[in-house]
């Protein structure tokens, strides 16, 4: 199950970046499960990671390596998260970095590891190491589609987005891939996302632009309210376009930031649309809030309500569940008589209860759509926020009940 078109858009190659994926047999034979990204020397990188306190071993190693140097290689395995594995997991992640560094002829700190899959099981280092030479030999500027396939776990489809934008008369490319379907409430990014550009970015600017983009994209999605131990979003900037962005180029930075945000937003929504068992996408927009944080709190409360999500799966316009979720979002001085709730442009609740013109058949028609916009006006300020989520179906339960069997 998934919502909408399952085909990848055209993923433009990024000068200075090569990617690949191979079947290494990490967990299941015959499927792409080991991806590699290479950045030409001289590039810069930025990353944001999970806020989960049980940070996976590759997250710990990645943060250390990114502090030491700019990476040449990102290595990604699926099938095993290498999380909850203690010091042995860190040693395993470092061993993978060491092996790839030997193959590529670079320093260990120039290799950054990422893992996704089952938590709490030792990383199967042997097949990962054995698959590295083939992945290295397969590196290609046009390998994005294979890499997008090679990082999936319970996803039903690969996810990618790509844009070209003109800055200072030159073409700049931004291309990204992501994975994620369950355990999605990122609190920084999504489960895994890798974005590359051929712009030249100062390290501090790259970090700031990535944080800003993830704040309104990956940090605004939720499937089930669970934050993974392995969440990571990385931006690689090869600099090969010849366009250099810094704080002195305000117009160029603005154009690039907008393109980066669009790519991140497309990837984030693709994760929601492929949420485990998803049949509908829900867009929850909260306006009239006293602050952006307040608007986010209300939106996430509604988005993560199992009762709201199951009603959406059934196409049931059970407006009382929306009303109850707004009311328990923790706004102590909320005046419920001023709150308005609508399905797209059809108002279903106002002045503390159901709108007098409410028609169950019309509400049901709105709830039967593949994408359901929910608008909530708190009428207490000028701030707003939008969160994207999906419904809960029988399939969500089956996927997670059978995940390890």
Describe this structure in words.
The protein has two domains: 17-273, L-amino peptidase D-ALA esterase/amidase; 281-401, ArgJ beta chain, C-terminal domain (Ubiquitin-like (UB roll), Roll). 33% of the residues lie in helices and 26% in strands. It has eleven helices and 17 strands. α1 (57-68) packs across α2 (86-104), α2 (86-104) packs parallel to α3 and α5 crosses α6 (250-273). The radius of gyration is 22 Å and the shape is globular. The mean pLDDT is 95.
Question: Main traits of this protein?
Answer:
about 400 residues; alpha+beta; L-amino peptidase D-ALA esterase/amidase; Ubiquitin-like (UB roll); 2 domains; six-stranded mixed sheet; five-stranded mixed sheet; 11 helices; about 35% helix
Summarize the structure.
The protein is of the alpha+beta class. It has helices at 57-68, 86-104, 125-137, 144-150, 203-215, 250-273, 292-303, 306-314, 319-327, 360-367, 394-401, and strands at residues 17-22, 34-39, 44-49, 73-80, 111-118, 159-167, 170-179, 192-197, 200-201, 232-237, 244-245, 281-289, 340-343, 346-350, 353-354, 371-377, 383-390. The model has no long low-confidence stretch (mean pLDDT 95).
Topology (SSEs and partners):
Layout: E1 17-22, E2 34-39, E3 44-49, H1 57-68, E4 73-80, H2 86-104, E5 111-118, H3 125-137, H4 144-150, E6 159-167, E7 170-179, E8 192-197, E9 200-201, H5 203-215, E10 232-237, E11 244-245, H6 250-273, E12 281-289, H7 292-303, H8 306-314, H9 319-327, E13 340-343, E14 346-350, E15 353-354, H10 360-367, E16 371-377, E17 383-390, H11 394-401
Parallel strand pairs: 4-5, 8-10, 9-11, 12-16
Antiparallel strand pairs: 1-2, 2-4, 3-10, 6-7, 7-8, 12-17, 13-14, 13-16, 14-15
Helix pairs in contact: 1-2, 2-3, 5-6
């Amino acid at each position: 199950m998934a919502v909408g078109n399952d085909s990848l858009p055209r993923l433009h190659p990024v000068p200075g970046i090569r990617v690949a994926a191979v079947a290494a047999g990490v967990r299941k034979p015959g499927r792409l499960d080991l991806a590699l990204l290479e950045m030409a020397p001289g590039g810069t990188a930025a990353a944001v990671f999970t806020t989960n306190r049980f940070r996976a071993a590759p997250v710990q190693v990645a943060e250390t390596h990114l502090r030491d140097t700019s990476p040449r290689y990102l290595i990604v395995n699926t099938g095993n998260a290498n999380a909850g594995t203690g010091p042995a997991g860190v040693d395993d992640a470092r061993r993978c970095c060491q092996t790839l560094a030997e193959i590529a002829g670079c320093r260990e700190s120039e290799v950054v590891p990422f893992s996704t899959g089952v938590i709490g099981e030792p990383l199967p280092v042997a097949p990962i190491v054995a698959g590295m030479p083939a992945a290295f030999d397969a590196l290609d500027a046009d390998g994005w589609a294979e890499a997008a396939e090679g990082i999936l776990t319970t996803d039903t489809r690969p996810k990618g987005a790509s844009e070209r934008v003109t800055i200072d008369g030159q073409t700049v490319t931004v291309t990204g891939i992501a994975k994620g379907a369950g355990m999605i409430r990122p609190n920084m990014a999504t489960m895994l996302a890798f974005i590359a550009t051929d712009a030249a970015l100062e390290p501090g600017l790259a970090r700031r632009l990535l944080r800003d983009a993830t704040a309104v994209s990956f940090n605004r999605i939720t499937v089930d309210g669970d934050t993974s131990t392995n969440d990571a979003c990385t931006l690689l900037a090869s600099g090969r376009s010849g366009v250099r962005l810094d704080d002195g180029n305000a117009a160029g930075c603005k154009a690039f930031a907008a393109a980066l945000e669009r790519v991140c937003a497309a990837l984030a929504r693709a994760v929601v649309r492929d949420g485990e068992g998803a049949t509908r996408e829900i867009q929850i927009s909260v306006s009239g809030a006293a602050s952006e944080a307040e608007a986010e709190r209300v939106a996430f409360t509604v988005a993560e309500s199992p009762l709201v999500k199951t009603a959406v799966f059934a196409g049931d316009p059970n407006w009382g569940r929306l009303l109850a979720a707004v009311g328990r979002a923790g706004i102590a001085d909320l005046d419920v008589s001023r709150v308005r709730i609508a399905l797209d442009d059809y108002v279903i609740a106002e002045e503390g209860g159901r709108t007098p013109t409410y028609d169950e058949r019309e509400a049901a028609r709105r709830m039967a759509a593949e994408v359901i916009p929910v608008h909530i006006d708190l009428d207490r300020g000028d701030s707003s926020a939008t969160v994207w989520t999906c419904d809960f179906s029988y399939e969500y339960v089956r996927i997670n009940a059978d995940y390890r069997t």
